[in-house]
Structures are given as C-alpha cells and as structure tokens.
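SAMPLE LOG
Freezer: B-3
Tube label: C17
Construct: single chain, 486 aa
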Amino acid sequence: MPGSNPWKLAWPVAVWLGLLAVPVPGGLQPHQWQYFAVFAAAIVAMVVTPLPGGAIALIAVSFIAAMGYVEADATASVRWALSGFADPAVWLTFGAFLFALGYRSSGLGRRIALSLVRRLGRRTLGLGYAIALADLALAPGMPSNTARSGGAIYPVVREIPPLYGSLPGPTARRIGAYLMWTAFASTAVTSSMFITALVPNAAALALAGRVTGLEIGWWRFLAGFAPAGILLLLLVPLVTYWIYPPQVRESPETVAWASAELRRMGPVSRREWTMLALVGLAIVLWVTGSNPRVSIPGLGSNFMHPTTVVLIVISLMLVLRVVTWDSVLAEREAWSMLLYFTMVLTLADGLNRIGFIAWFARIAVAPLAGTDPMVVMFALVGLFFWSHYLFASITAHAVAVLPVVLAIGQEIPGLPGAPLALLCIYGLGLMGVISPYATGCAPIYAGSGFIGRARFWLLGLVFGLLYFAVLIGVTGPWVLATMPPR
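STRUCTURE (predicted):
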C-alpha cells in the first residue's frame, strides 16, 4: 500500500518542488516550465511509487487542467484533459484486452499452447519452438504480455519441468531454466510484431502521429517488423539452446502430458470455434480494411479503421456469447488500462502542445550540427532502447523519451522521421528482455526460481544486444527502403 512507504511518495514531490525552484530557462514561459515540473514528477512517481500508473496520470492531468497550464480557459482546459478518450488507439488497445478475455474464457488460448507442445515437444529444442509459436499465435489478440505470457503461456510451461525432476534450485538447469528463458525472450519479440500485441505500441504510434504525422495501419506495422521478427523467433530457442543449454535434450513425457491435458479439455467447444472465427475475421479486416492497396467492391479502400474492427468483433463476442457483459465489466485490467492509457497520452500530448518538446529539441540538436543524419538516427534509436534500464514501465518510457527523441530527429536536416519513429516503436517490445523489471511479465519469470538473479541480468544483456543488432541491421534497412521518410 502507498502509505507503507512514504519515502517513495516523497521523491516525486521533491522533483516537482525542485524544478519549480529553478529559474525558468530562457525561451520558455513560466507555465511551460511548471507543466514540465508536473510531468517529470509524474514519471518519477510511476517509476518509484506503488501507486497505479493510471492514478498518477489522472492526478497529474487533473492538476494541470485546474492550473490552466495548457489552456487558460476553464472549459477548454477540461476538454484538453478529456481529449485522450477520443483517440482511436485507446479503444483499439482496450478492445484487444477484451480479445484476451475471449481467449481465456473460451479456453482457446490454453488449447493452442497445449496443441503446439503436443506436436513439437518431443525434443527440448522443439518444445522451445512450440512455446515461441504459442506466444506468436496469441499475440495479435492479447495486448498485454503479462496476460499473454504470464497468464496463458507460463502456467503451461511451469507444469513441464517437474515431469523431468527439474525444480527451482540445483535441478533447474535440467530443462526448467531453458524453457523459462525461451518463453520470456520469445514474448519480447512477439510484443513488437503487432500493434495489438503490447499496449505501448498503440500509445507510441499515437504519440508519433502527433509529433511527426506518422500514420500506419495494422498490416503495415506487421510488414515492417516481420523480417526481423521471423528471424528472431527462429533464433531465440536455438541461441538459448546454445548459450544456456538444458541437460535434458529429449522430452517425450511432455507430449504425453500435453495429450492428457487436451483429452481432459475435451473436444473443441462451440465458444472456442466462435472465438477462433472472430479472431480470424479481425485479422482479415485489419489487413484489408485499412490497407490502401486493397479495394473491396462497393466499399473501396481504407473502408474500416482498425479500432472499428475491434469494436465490431467485441460486439459479436457479446452477441454470440463468447463473453458476457458482466465478464466485460469485471475485466479490471482492461478498464484500468483504458484510464491509464488515456491519461498518459493526454499528459504527453500536453507537453508537445505547449511547445516544450520543440524548445528542448532545438537545444539538444545544437551539438549534432554537421553529423551524418543516418548516424544520428541510429544513435537516437540506441539512446531510446538502452535508456530503458532506467524504467520499470515501457509505457512510462515511451511517454517520457519518445517525444523528445522524435523532436530531436525533426530538427536534423535530412533525417528520415518516419523510420526513426518506427525503429523506436519496434524496439518497445524488444527492450522488455533486458532486465527483471523491464516489462510486465519479467518479474513472473525472474521470480520463478529457475533462473538465478545474476544469470537473468546477463542473459538480458546478451539478448538485448542480439535484439538491438537485428533491429538496426535488419529492420533499419528494411524500413528505410519501404517507408516514406517524411
């Protein structure tokens, strides 16, 4: 509870008061600096305090609206404070959380995971690929890797090591440590493959759109990362097998266990078939509805926004009784995310709207004059990626750092803004691998007892370097070749 550690609450207050005590820098108005002081305090609070992120952002936005830092008129100020609820990205992500509810309540998610384990799990390496593919299959409709990997994949994976006498402690390396790291490292990759695979993806795209004008649909987002994503999904189980090898190389018991679990589940239920059909419908509409290259007779191209697709599919889930309205109302994580995402997006937008980001970018870009734009672009991506060691929340990281990086990029003549934005956004899921607190499901795997603390940090660094190298070496040239520079 927050009251149990008042010193953590003192940190954001100290940051706020400390910044207010600093003379307003040249080129800024007092209200701009006061807004930044509240913003900085909110980010610190998200990192160090036990208060929920949505509560922190709501407090900050409410205070800013009351003080009139963005809009002096009271009516205009409250309209700004509520403007995030009109952003389609908010509702796209909220809807994807309800997709996760459908996977879970229908049993489809567990069946997919068990089916892949049964088919590929005879050898330990094949079991690693089954885990990666199970996460990939769930990723388009589950925007929280905590729910996807921690809630759907981990419970299945956790049942396997005891079959081989592999438990936390001395026997962890028999098979458990390998499976745990493969599951964790795989979800970092799948989190970058789809807009709907990770909440911050949509938030970051919304922020990038406001700073750079970038607009990209579900299909183009996938196409931009697919070369790197496919490569990494092929590499993760294999590289883990090489550098963190399991002692058990074959796992026939796993196949028998998965088969028994599937028999216990019985035949595919009507709700599972319905959920599978609805997910397929959503993917088809995401691919076709917002793709300008696809034209539907009578509808033309760009006939359906991705968020509209989500709303339609959720409506069908309710009509066809895959989920109930009571279960939707009880989905606390989705509603909490809705408020959190909305307030965080509004908070970051205000910093850009008042002109603070543009002011900071002009100052930061001065030492870079004369440097090759491509060198600057990749350096900014590196700064964005590795600075995540300072954050325990990918969303907080994106909100705090992405607008600054993009604004600096806009001030560099010849630097392609859209590729810079996409490389940073594609890095959001990948950076979740670097530490035991880097993403929502990280503490689950770090706390499983199968991977020692020092080993977890070392593997995070090794895979972080691998992911960053592929991001720069594969996604970088691909995005530069296929994305208009803007």
